[in-house]
Amino acid sequence: MIHPITPPPELVQQWDVEGRHQDYCTVASHIAARAAQWGSDQELEACCEWIAAYPWLDHPELLIKQLRAARRSKPPSLKEQAQAELKRLIALIPTEGAIAMAEPIRRALEALPDG
After folding, report:
1. Is 4 in the same domain as 57?
2. Are 7 and 49 within one domain?
3. Who's near 102: CB < 8 A, 6+ residues apart?
4. First to last CA, the chain
């Protein structure tokens, strides 16, 4: 019997396809990360259902909202995403020219307001 928190084969196949343009280690890491997130999401949903099932709670939806907020942080901002991608690009092309070309982009990103 498959454990209820095991991702369905279709999802694993989808994750494999998403990461296939990269090397094996990256694909394996991608699948592992996606599977961990999926399992975590399944557990959070089970906890929310458990809370909602208790009739003596006056407002279970408030507790569920607080639980979701505490256990799922906000996704990175566009600025944070761009900074991370620039860092990855510099690591992929570690030549002095590429690093010099990336410097004005890095400074511009740092100058942007957070959020």
Report:
1. yes
2. yes
3. 86, 89, 90
4. 45
